[in-house]
Amino acid sequence: MNINDKLLSKLETLSSLKIEESERENIINQLSEIVNFVENLNELDLDSYEATFTTVEGGTPFREDIPKSSESIIKTIVKYAPKAQDGFFIVPKIIE
Hints:
- 40% of the residues lie in helices and 4% in strands.
- By secondary structure, it is mainly alpha-helical.
- It has a domain at 5-41: Histone, subunit A (Orthogonal Bundle), CATH 1.10.20.
- The longest helix is centred in the middle third of the chain and has 18 residues, at 24-41.
- The mean pLDDT is 89.
């Protein structure tokens, strides 16, 4: 794929970006390098590999779900609140 000024202008419009005139040539070169790298991936022979969604054999290991008390955490957080009462934050009334 050839990245030229016309394609860059189209990408600029689609992405709602404004590329400075002084940066256009640099951006074109960078995008061309990226596209060339991705095109190299097409040369790989992947027929012997099965498509996967994870690299972990057998799926994602889960930790045991053990409930923990959050009372000490709540006390610590409320301690630093500007105003608090009975473990809750006190905030200014915004709806009458």
